[in-house]
Structure formats: C-alpha cells, structure tokens
Amino acid sequence: MENPAVTAPAEGFFPSFLLVTCGTLLAALLGAAHRLGLFYQLMHKVDETSVRHGGENVAAVLRAHGVRFIFTLVGGHISPLLVACEKLGIRVVDTRHEVTAVFAADAVARLTGTVGVAAVTAGPGLTNTVTAVKNAQVAQSPVLLLGGAASTLLQKRGALQAIDQMSLFRPLCKFCASVRRVRDIIPTLRAAMAAAQSGTPGPVFVELPVDVLYPYYMVQKEMVPAKLPKGLMGRVISWYLKNCLANLFVGAWEPQPEGPLPLDIPQASPQQVQRCVEILSRAKKPLLLLGSQALLPPVPADKLRAAVETLGVPCFLGGMARGLLGRNHPLHIRQNRGAALKKADVVLLAGAVCDFRLSYGRILSHKSKIIIINRNRDDMLLNSDIFWKPQEAVQGDVASFMLKLVEGLQGQMWAPEWAEELREADRQKEQTFREKAAMPVAQHLNPLRVLQLVEETLPDNSFLVVDGGDFVATAAYLVQPRGPLRWLDPGAFGTLGVGAGFALGAKLCQPDAEVWCLFGDGAFGYSLIEFDTFVRHKIPVMALVGNDAGWTQISREQVPRLGSNVACGLAYTDYHKAAMGLGAQGLLLSRENEDHVVKVLRDGQQQCRDGHPVVINILIGRTDFRDGSISV
Ligand SMILES: Cc1ncc(C[n+]2csc(CCOP(=O)(O)OP(=O)(O)O)c2C)c(N)n1
Ligand SMILES: [Mg+2]
What we know:
By secondary structure, this protein is of the alpha/beta class. Strands 2-1-3-4-6-5 form a 6-stranded parallel β-sheet. A 6-stranded parallel β-sheet has the order 13-12-14-15-17-16, with helices on both faces. The radius of gyration is 30 Å and the shape is globular. It is found in: Endoplasmic reticulum membrane.
C-alpha cells in the first residue's frame, strides 16, 4: 500500500526545488545582465562615430560650477580633461610638483569660498599630492582632486602606474569615487562638488580611468584587440570586450544637468541661539575667539565683520579669521591671549577648536562659561570634559550663528573698561617687541626690525602667505593682514612647503592685489622651483626669505635639549640668484644695505608691478624672541 505521508513531500519537493533553482538562476542572470549594462543598452545609444570624449564632460561640470582655474602637472592619463578645460576657457596652470597644484587649489577654495580644483596623473602623480590633500583635510578646505587611472579593464592587471588609489585617498577625503562609465562623469562630479562644501568642508577625490576620458575610437583600438583567441573562448572574450566598450560609452553624450547641487550646511537652532544670547547678556567680561570656520560661506566676510563690530566683544582672531577687522581695530586683541582667557567670564569659541592651539582646552578657566560653535561635532567637543566643559555646544555654521546672536542681543553693550584693559596689555607687550627690534644682533639683520618695516610697507591691497618656522611665527606677532581672507597659512597641519602653491592660488584669484610671501629659508626650498611656474605663467608674486641658514625653529630646541645641531644647518644660500636663474628677479638684503630695507622692499614691489616674480633674500641673525615656544 502506498504511504501518502512518504510520497507527498517528494512530489512537492521537486517542483519547489526547481522553482527556487530557476528563480535563483534567473535572478543571477538578470543581475549579471544589469551589471553588464545590457538593459541600459536596450534603451540608450552608443555613438560609435563620435569623436567627443569624457574630458569634455569633466570640463562642462567644472564650468557649470564657476571653476576658473585648474592646477595640474600633466600626464597622458588626464590630457583629455586638460585640453577640454582649455577649450572652455578654464585656465590650466601647470606646476612643477603635484603638491603645489593641490596647495594652489586649496588657496583658491579658501579665498573664493568655492571648490578649488587640481588634476594629476595616475600613480606617482597622485601619491605626490598626499601631503597637500591631508593639509586641506585638516584645514577643512573644499578641494576637488581629479586623478587619472589605468583603464577600467586593466586595473589590478599590472598596468603602468596602476595602484589602489581609492584605498590611498579614502582616509584623506570625505568623498571618493571611481568613475566606471562616461555617463557617470557628470553626476559623480556634481556629487563630489556638493560633498566638498557641505557639512564640514574638505577635500574630495574622483578617479577617472583613461578609458572614460578618451574618445570611442581610441578606446576601441586599445580595448578590442584585432586578433583574439579562436574558438568558443575567443568569441566569448570578444563579446565581453565589445560589451564593456559599449557599456562605457552608452548614453555618454545625452544631456544631463551639470550645475551645482544644493549644499547641506548645519545651522544652530533658534533655542540654542536664545540660550547663548542669555548667557552672553549676563556677561561682564566676554571674550570672542574666531577661528577659520567663521570665514566659510554662505555669510560673506564683510557681513561677519559688521556683526562682530556690532557685538562689541573684544576678540582674538586665528587661522583664516586673521585680518577680519583690518589693521589696529579697537576690538581686535592680539597679545596675551592666555591671560585674557583667565579673566573672561564668558568665552565664545566661534570656530576655534580646543586642540594644541588652545592647549587642548587647558588654557580655558573653569570659572568662565564657555560657548562653542562649530560645524563639526568631533571638533566641537574635542577634549571637552577632560580639560574644559562647554556651557553650550552648538553644531552649526559659525558666521550664520554670529549673525543671529547679534540680532538676539539687540545692541547690548559691555563696560568699555574690559576691552581697554586688554588693549593696555597689548600696548605693553608690543612695546617689548619694539625694544627687541631695536637690539643689535651678532650678525646680519635683526629679523624683528625687518618685519616691523614689512608691517610699515605692506600695502592695503596685499595678501600674506606664510611658510616657515621661527621667522614667520615672529611675523604673526608683528605683521598684520590688511583685511579678511588676506592671511594664508597651512593651518593646524603645520605643513612646510605650502608657500608657492598658496601664492599661486592667491594671485590668480586677486590679480590686482600684491601677494607677499614670507618664507623661512628652509621652507623656501620646497617652493623655489615654482618660480619657474610663476615666470612661465606671468604671475608676479613677491617672496621675502628670512635666511638664517638653518631650520631654526627645530635647532633652537634640539641643541640645548639634545646637544647637537645635526640636520638643522643650512647655508646662507643665494636664493635670489637661484630665482634669477629661473627667470625671476632677485634682490639681496644684508648688513650692507641695512639702511635701505624699505627701499629694497619697494624696488621688489615695483618689479612685481612690472610683471616679474621677485625673491628678496634677507640675511637675518638670531634673537631670543621665540625662546620658549615649542615645536612638538
Ligand atoms: C613638511 C614639514 N617638514 C618638517 C617640518 C618640521 N619643521 C617645523 S618648523 C621647521 C623649521 C623651518 O625652518 P625655516 O623654514 O628655515 O624657518 P626658521 O625656523 O628657520 O625661521 C621644521 C623643519 C614641518 N613642519 N613640515
Ligand atoms: Mg631658517
């Protein structure tokens, strides 16, 4: 007798097994077809006759985002996009080192409030940018780095200069993408541009393999070899390669929106602003510390400046906020920050971060009420509850918050004695600087005296770029930027070598302004070759090299602590002559022309106005001005 209990499951099992197997197979086939782009190819066209190339799509997006300059060091991988940029009127500026290209893009980003763009070739071209990309990340600068790459099919197959570039840049960039089809260039770049400027700004990386940048007929020649293996295998390979080619180019030239996507910028809530208004309205000795983030768009610098003036709270300016109030503004306190912070009852950290610059928060008094505002939550709370505690921590755009705060305070004023007390301390400190500047030094020129004269000579339309150790740190005390966004330093990464790139970006953005670069002689070594770039591109900037024949900021500590000057010594090299060899103008300042410092500076200015890049080699001696300041 048949046992239904045994036969029934067997009858039901096979059909459902078959169903599941067929379903899985179908799903796998559909998935594979999707991956191979077969469905997309049903609906869209490959234009095999077109001579257009993906570089044109790159350039179109850049132009639609208002990009005016692209910095590069050329390589075959990226030639199409450079040529396309040139055709669309985007100025292509080629430097002598990829790191300079990215530093220049960083400067453009900071000065224009948009994205700075650099393009470099695959492999070593990209690895050469790493320091500048990291610097931009630490400085929260929106830079778009475009990198060439081996063709999509040859990646991981031993192609020239092919490395895993994505893994290299993922930790450095807030957005990384590798474009795999020509039609993806435009949306990927739009997303990258938006990511760079949204939230906490920072660098983004888009990898563009050669086959998405070159025209169809050239890629076809490389991708589908004339001779293929015979037989079934040959036919399969041939079909696969032809399909890859079709998928690369299908829909490539269909019109797509190229312009900017909306940005996502965090804003303080009205309740948070109100709580800060209440804290501040009860303050007797409020103090404002403005950091780089305060200068980010969307609020223009002039509007922020007006808000800070209306607020009427004495303030210290750091990073990109330096110069916000111009020269000698009564609210701008420059010296004795630690002492001022100890006395203040309310401290507003607007874009200032409790990292090493504020002694990790230890510089703040436990008695002060601290309000901190920052776009980035981690930065905002850095070292909090260890060395300091915020009364109010507000995640949002700094300048927008400042505007609302000032509105909420409705013209409240503070007793003038507090600001006057701080100004008096400033005057006393600056008197000691003057005394030190008048002291003789054992040999060459007193750097303080030179920098005082720089301060007196510097024109109102100038931009200052600083790159070096002690010489430029001294300048930070003595030389005042003339307006907002007119002081460019590397930021918290403390990178030597930013000078030429920053100067290049600054002068291109502001061709009518004078760009004065203050260099240590050590730091200048990184930038010297870029005087070739300045000459070729007719970019007249002026370098002032504080030449003390050494890496003094390091040797100043290394010698007394460790008893050796090893690796810290340089020579009084003729940097002015080296620059002349590159086609720039060179001037020398030494004891010989001690009484003519201002005249030499003015000669340099004149030569710049005549269109020449200039290097003034300034031989300087030792002072004790920076004794006690540490560099680790
Ligand atoms: C890329 C890089 N390398 C090394 C350092 C370490 N460092 C900081 S200051 C300094 C000395 C700078 O010498 P120079 O530019 O001549 O300025 P000086 O202190 O002599 O005025 C060095 C080597 C650094 N900050 N960045
Ligand atoms: Mg030096």
